[in-house]
Amino acid sequence: MSDKSGTAVIGEDTAKTSHRAKLQSVMRTVGMAPVLIILAIIFQLLSDRFISVQNLSIVAQQASVNMVLAAGMTFVILSGGIDLSVGSILAASSMVALIVSNIPDISFLAIPAGILLGLIIGMLNGSLVAFVRLPPFIVTLGALTAVRGFARLLGSDQTVFNPSLDYAVIGNGDIFGIPWLVIIAFAVILLSWFILRRTVLGVHIYSVGGNENAARLAGIKVPLVLLFVYAVSGAFSGIGAIMQTARLYAANGLQLGQSYELDAIAAVILGGTSFVGGIGSIWGTFVGALIIAVLSNGLVLIGISDIWQFIIKGLVIIGAVALDRYRLAGSAHT
Amino acid sequence: MSETPALAPILEMSNIRKTFVGVKALSGVQLTAYPGEIHALMGENGAGKSTLMKILSGAYRADPGGEIRLFGQPVTIDGPLAAKRLGIAVIYQELSLSPNLTVAENIYLGSEPRSNGMIDRGAMEEGSAPVLERLGANFKPRTLVADLSIAERQLVEIARAVHAKARILVMDEPTTALSSRETDRLFDLIRQLRREGLAIIYISHRMNEIYELADRVSVLRDGAYVGTLSSDELSAERLVKMMVGRDLSGFYTKEHDKKSHIGDVVLEVRDLGDDRRVKTASLMVHAGEVVCLAGLVGSGRTELARLIFGAERATHGEVLLRGQPAGASSPGAAIARGIVYLTEDRKAQGLFLDMSVQDNINLAVIGRDSKAGGVLDLKRAAERAKDAIAALQIRVAGPKVNVGTLSGGNQQKVLLSRLIETEPQVLLLDEPTRGVDIGAKSEIYRLVDQLAQRGVAILVISSELPEVVGMADRVLVMRDGTIAGEITGTAEAPITQEAIMELATGAKTATAA
């Protein structure tokens, strides 16, 4: 029978609504940037060394790997999913990249091999979510464990070294004083922005996350969109692996990338992307990743103990999710 | 209209009103039920039957001013628990059992017997056995509900109500999912409960069930009480007259001329079905024709439209577009061929409430418009949005505003714009005016009329009979998953609400020419 809950409110004041909508849109765009600035000021006041070219460069480098992982995570979370396996993929891709870099004739293939492995694992995740219709949490939780095991298997559970790594410049070099890591991270953010905001696929990702049923009825090939977002997340994890190993000249299947997925998820959520999908932006993730790096760096700088660092970071993440809820409640679902 | 039985009434609801965000769902409805009575409640879709029953069961609170008396005493029903304590039990179409629990556990749900603080399964099974036996159940208290058929589950619900000493039992279309043998058994059971002195409020659209069971029938229309008939006063004609009777014909514009505009067959559906809600259906829609698909909720109209659109998979039959097979495997394929579908539930299945008006309008065509590499043509999208907002008079501050902030009518226009932008040949509209205000309604009618003039073949599903009569060039009526009949209006014999209702309820089974 009739469903009156969907009944229209007659004669809404459109001017007022638009004003509110604008304010909300501004809130969303600016997002957590004020938090970032306030944190920077607090750390500067407390340590006196925080805002310096040298330290900010360190912060940017510390943020860069997480930023790349978080960019991939943004695609997945926008589509309404989650990818818990990025840290493990980073470990496996690191192992492959280092192993290939040690084989004389094909060492130039190290970078593509690492990224390709990430892409393949991401596509496996995506296939299970998109075509087998398994819950993303379960699929990537399984991958978190299985891929970690695979990473250890690759190096027979040993650390692989390459003191003369071809691509070490990525981890240590710079152009015009800007570290390569920072340039890559920013390039990944720009690429993500372009895909999400300037392509058909990007609109489709937002649509699937916003309302999967409606997306299907609008003719969107939902499974392909889901496959794509997990593939991106996997490939970006591969890029993260190249960045990480370029600094370390080494890879270890057991230790590398441990709990990186948590920092990546935290960056996305801090950036205001809604956990239920469909709402959020890559610039939010950019700021979110910076906040996490600033927190880590600043807390060390002002001499907070390791234990308290964990507690404070955790509480900041919970606070951000609470803010996310609050924002969703405020948005206009008539 | 009816004589009052000698006994005192068990339930008296009087002057019941309910308003939802500015829309009146019930205005001064009354209902009286006596012990040992089967009281049928009838009315069109949206007449207010469910709302009234939800007030009785405590799911909704009535607006102040009305009164509910049980055994002559005024009562306040402020929640489902209160209703249960007062002896009111409701059995909804979607059964509310926990399939993972046993029959006994379901019967005792919420009032489990304990011994020493632990749940006493033995007592539960002993306590439910006699009730089940009395109702003629052939399963044990220990059986898992998941292992029972729909009919058996219904019996468990009834057993739960009887066990909780319910005095008033409301049944909302209980036979929808039952076979005819199961229906007979259920009727026997209902008669047994009547003998035991319960008052049974029975909601159904099916005329033959009303004849067979009801002692009295009350009719609602547009949220108002129309009247009550006793079984000896009952006739299909009288009931249908009471249920329909609104006349809004002047409100509809129909400028597309049937004779001069209607062209070739565009959409042809042959023996389409899914072996579930749609048994088999065949129909044709011509270019420039508006065909309305009428029928009661649950008759398979929406399911048929979704089969044609490819949103659900058909098990048999075919869909032809201009004579060519267009067996759509997915909504995307259907849209590419020029068949589009407007969902009946725009919030859950249509719109992206957190996306802008512009994105919502363009969603189905951004692929077509895109530049190389799938890059969005933002300029084209902005133009389309601007034009659509102007053409459909969508009241919105700008194309970048989120759709979620718009009123129902404007949301519906946004969704319609998305479909129209694809330049469809066939438009399947499922309840296009549901939940929109009266102004937007007439604009939507005008839009449908204009699209018909342009030669689009239009199939409209509607539960509002005046709307069907006002819009349709031709009406197809569905009942129980098949097309029960077709009504072609002529100058001498125009389409009437009564004719549609007769076919929809099965009051008349012959196909009117």
Automatic annotation (TrEMBL), chain A:
Matching entries from InterPro entries are given as: ABC_transp_permease (IPR001851)
Which segments does the entry list as coiled coil? none
Membrane topology, as annotated: Multi-pass membrane protein
- Give the subcellular location: Cell membrane
| Transmembrane annotation, as ranges | 26-46, 67-100, 106-125, 137-155, 175-196, 224-244, 264-292, 299-323
Q: Does the record bear Transmembrane in its keywords?
A: yes
Which UniProt key words apply to this protein?
Answer: Cell membrane, Membrane, Transmembrane, Transmembrane helix
Molecular functions (GO terms): transmembrane transporter activity
Keyword check for Membrane: yes
> What is any one of the record's Gene Ontology cellular component terms?
plasma membrane
Q: Which PANTHER family match?
A: ABC TRANSPORTER PERMEASE PROTEIN YPHD-RELATED-RELATED, RIBOSE IMPORT PERMEASE PROTEIN RBSC
Protein name per Swiss-Prot or TrEMBL: Ribose transport system permease protein
Species whose genome carries this gene: Consotaella salsifontis
From TrEMBL, chain B:
Which UniProt keyword terms apply here?
ATP-binding, Cell membrane, Membrane, Nucleotide-binding, Repeat, Sugar transport, Translocase, Transport
Give the subcellular location. Answer: Cell membrane
The record, for InterPro entries, names:
AAA+_ATPase, ABC_carbohydrate_import_ATPase, ABC_transporter-like_ATP-bd, ABC_transporter-like_CS, P-loop_NTPase
- A Gene Ontology term for the protein's cellular component: plasma membrane
What domain of life does the native source organism fall in?
Bacteria
The membrane-topology field of this record reads:
Peripheral membrane protein
Principal cellular location given in the protein's record? membrane
Domain ABC transporter residue range list: 11-247, 260-505
Record GO terms (molecular function): ATP binding; ATP hydrolysis activity
Task: Quote the PROSITE patterns the UniProt record gives.
Answer: ABC_TRANSPORTER_1, ABC_TRANSPORTER_2
What protein family is recorded?
Belongs to the ABC transporter superfamily.
Descriptive protein name: Monosaccharide ABC transporter ATP-binding protein, CUT2 family
